[in-house]
Amino acid sequence: MSSTVVLSFDPEESMTPISRRLFLSISAALVPDLAFAHHGWGGYDTSKSFEVTGELLKSTYENPHCEIEVEVEGKLWHFVLAPPSRMQRRGITPEMIAPGKTCTVFGYPHTSKPDEARIEYIVLDGKRIELR
User: Fold this and answer.
1) The overall pTM is greater than 0.85
2) Per the domain annotation, does 20 fall within a domain?
3) Beta bridge mates, 104
4) Of the candidates 88, 98, 73, which has an alpha carbon nearest to the alpha carbon of residue 129?
């Protein structure tokens, strides 16, 4: 003998007007925080683009963005690249941005972090690859 239990959920019956308003208020309050969680690119000065070439000292190939550290004329730069999924679609593998390689980057400096820049394109092994 088997028995079947059917469970149903009716949000109209389970949420009182007060709990519904509380849920909506909390949800509305959290939306700006969730939108801010992905920073956007407003912190980079697109009027001051530059291009440099240097040796890769460190690299990460992970979300939310791949990153590299490059020494250029004695200055250590932190460059923010594209997310791994876009890097893969553009044909860039982790091995291509491994420490010891040389690259050229074109990007925009951060407005408050003097050693950071957002990269628009990177040149690896003589090939220019757009990241945006």
Assistant:
1) no
2) no
3) 53, 123
4) 88
